[in-house]
Write a structure and sequence with these properties.
The complex is a heterodimer of chains A (415) and B (237). Chain A is mainly alpha-helical and 415 residues long. Chain A has one domain. Chain A is built from 16 helices and no strands. Chain A is globular. The relative contact order of chain B is 0.18. Classes of the chains: A mainly alpha (415), B alpha/beta (237).
Chain lengths: 415, 237
């Protein structure tokens, strides 16, 4: 996706220098303070981004969105995945991965819950769409578009069912339980006769509408309408998740991620919010599963293995856990690389493995690191309440405030 | 008036019993210290009161209400606030954001400004560091932040778990001075300390915990003069 187009018009030497100074000073601080390791510092791009005015941000976003919509039609020469793979279908696949990454980011990035079985929710969503629309299914048949909210509701339910018993566990234990859940769903799809195992469901439904010549608009071979649909959904979901992130819920998630016990004794009902993160993440996974089933038109038990789960997680970690734009970028990249470089597609896990190792060494926060700006909003509210002067809400992101105070803090600490 | 009462409280970690039938009370307006060696059960007691641990037997009463089964996040709303051991600040949040998290359980948003002023009054250093990330601050500053954050919920009872841990001596004196001031402003304080000398000097009453049991109790002064305590905890024979 063209979200990668980084450097903005406001590229000034001063900004660069400020960023460098900040980097240097935070490195110096790191020597004496172990706690720093867990700290998320704003990255280079986000500094640039927050230096822009609101209007500039919107203008830039609109250009990016328009370019994103036009992407499969432009079929840019170097970027294109052809002749190996149809570019419009590749775009859909990237969008699908991006949507999954946005969902998984809620669980892993915001609430800090390591979920290794996310593919299970994706599978549940796919099966929902397939079993309610495919002629192979013995169940009632409904229009495809109705299956999307149903798939979300069902996966949300599964998220709660999995979450309530397991979210009392932490860290490694939770990861192992979710890993098990992912396998259970896949194996159930194999052994329950109604889910038809490897035979699967053919002719899964698609959204209505036909071209002038009578062929459906949303056909399996034409990726463009599917891509547009998914992209639109990504934009809506990202806006919703963004609002959530800045709300009381988002603050609770970040606090849980940072320190669960501390969050609890601050009055955060940690269990409730963890279940919410799980349920919302699951619903987005189910949504992308339903889209996937519709586009491919065929669902069986072969697409929902553990490696796919790990691939989803790799997308989030690669992009930057806790940053929704990072997740979109990571998801798109994880899908794009094997499609573009078909010669190396066989080695994709090897390549992602190496890429992840390198990223962890050189950029441990992912390509676009998270800075939970959400509390800036909380502070705006606080300022309103206290009508306090001199604490402008946006100053946290102002690089110039960084080095001086930080260095002073260091001196103060040693004195 | 009794604010907090523990009655025959026992706590188990699996099959290991960490607290054996502990009973004590904290009255409103007091500073009470719990002292004891490593593994005596001090932190366990704190976590039981704040609700992070469940007691296997006994009863915890707060302001006349039985809170034995109450969840930790609801206890905050009722007025118990803890500055946890090892500070437990949110390292990726700024000082202001950390303080803001302290108000999460509050119902009365209107009092937030007053409490923020109070915290900045007690800890002017936090005001200077307002926009700094919690994780980049020194140990002492983090301790201030943890106490300040706990105060942001405007608690009736402030639980301090080893407020002097890992701090330089002159800083420890400052922290205890501040604790005294917090108490003078009307907040009841229950603290756990290894630094028995300072804790006993600053506390109205104190209890000595040994392997999960209370072995001594009395006013801070009495315990300071008790020869057996002197030997065991104050390092003078």
């Amino acid at each position: 996706m063209s979200m990668t187009d980084g450097p903005t018009p406001l590229q000034t030497a001063a900004a660069e220098q400020a960023a460098e100074e900040r980097e240097a000073s935070s490195k110096a601080a790191g020597k004496s303070d172990l706690a720093q390791r867990g700290r998320r510092k704003p990255g280079y791009f986000s500094d640039r981004w927050h230096a822009l005015s609101r209007q500039q941000q919107w203008a830039f976003l609109i250009i990016v969105v328009v370019l994103a919509y036009l992407l499969p039609l432009m079929n840019p020469p170097i970027i294109t995945t052809e002749p190996g793979n149809n570019f419009a279908l590749a775009c859909f696949d990237m969008a699908r991965f991006a949507l999954i990454a946005v969902g998984l980011n809620v669980v892993v990035g915001y609430a800090g819950l390591l979920d290794l079985g996310y593919v299970a929710f994706f599978a549940v969503g796919s099966y929902c769409a397939a079993m309610l629309t495919s002629p192979d299914s013995p169940f009632l048949h409904i229009p495809y578009l109705w299956t999307i909210p149903i798939a979300m509701a069902v996966t949300m339910f599964f998220g709660v069912v999995l979450g309530v018993p397991t979210l009392r566990l932490r860290g490694d234990y939770l990861a192992i339980v979710t890993l098990g859940f992912g396998e259970i769903v896949r194996i159930l799809a194999t052994i329950i006769p109604a889910m038809k195992g490897q035979v699967g469901f053919q002719n899964v439904g698609h959204p209505p509408g036909t071209e002038a010549d009578g062929t459906p608009i949303f056909s399996n071979s034409n990726g463009v309408p599917w891509y547009w649909l998914t992209l639109t959904i990504i934009i809506i979901v990202t806006l919703l998740v963004g609002n959530l992130e800045r709300s009381r819920v988002g603050r609770a998630w970040i606090a849980i991620r940072e320190d669960e016990d501390a969050a609890e004794i601050m009055g955060v009902p940690t269990f409730k919010y963890k279940v919410w993160a799980f349920a919302i993440g699951a619903a987005i996974g189910g949504l992308s599963g339903a889209l996937f089933a519709g586009q491919v038109g065929f669902v069986n038990n072969q697409k929902f293995d553990v490696t796919t789960s790990i691939l989803f997680l790799a997308a989030v970690v690669l992009g930057g856990a806790g940053n929704k734009v990072g997740a979109i970028l990571g998801g798109a990249l994880v899908s794009y690389i094997p499609l573009r470089f078909t010669a190396i597609a066989e080695y994709k896990y090897l390549i992602f493995g190496i890429a992840l190792v390198l990223i962890m060494i050189f950029r441990s926060q992912g390509l676009l690191p998270a800075r939970q700006r959400l509390l800036a909003y909380g502070r705006t509210a606080l300022n309103k309440v206290t009508s306090r002067e001199g604490t402008e809400p946006k100053d946290t992101d102002n690089p110039s405030a960084g080095p001086g105070t930080r260095a002073a803090g260091q001196r103060g600490a040693e004195a | 008036m009794t604010l907090l009462e523990l009655k025959d409280v026992s706590v188990h970690y699996g099959r290991i019993q960490a607290l054996r039938n502990i009973s004590f009370t904290v009255d409103e307006g007091e500073v009470v210290a719990l002292i004891g060696a490593n593994g005596a059960g001090k932190t366990t007691t704190m976590r039981t009161i704040s609700g992070l641990l469940n007691c296997s037997e006994g009863k915890v009463t707060f302001a006349g209400q039985d809170i034995t089964k109450m969840k930790a996040h609801i206890r905050v709303v009722h007025g118990i606030s803890q500055a946890p051991e090892g500070r437990g600040i949110f390292p990726g949040m700024t000082v202001m954001e950390n303080l803001d998290m302290g108000t999460f359980g509050r119902k009365d948003r209107s009092g937030v400004g007053k409490d923020l002023d109070r915290v900045f009054d007690l800890f002017p250093r936090l005001k200077e560091r307002e926009k700094q990330y919690g994780g980049t601050m020194s140990g002492g500053e983090q301790q201030m932040l943890a106490i300040g954050r706990a105060l942001m919920s405007n608690p009736k009872l402030l639980l301090l778990d080893e407020p002097s841990m890992g701090l330089a001596p002159q800083f420890i004196r400052q922290i205890f001075k501040i604790i005294k001031e917090i108490n003078n402003q009307g907040t009841t304080v229950l603290m756990v300390e290894q630094n028995a000398n300072q804790a006993l000097a600053g506390a109205h009453r104190a209890f000595v915990l040994e392997t999960g049991e209370i072995t001594h109790s009395g006013t801070g002064k009495q315990l300071l003069e008790d020869p057996s305590i002197k030997e065991a905890y104050l390092g003078v024979g």
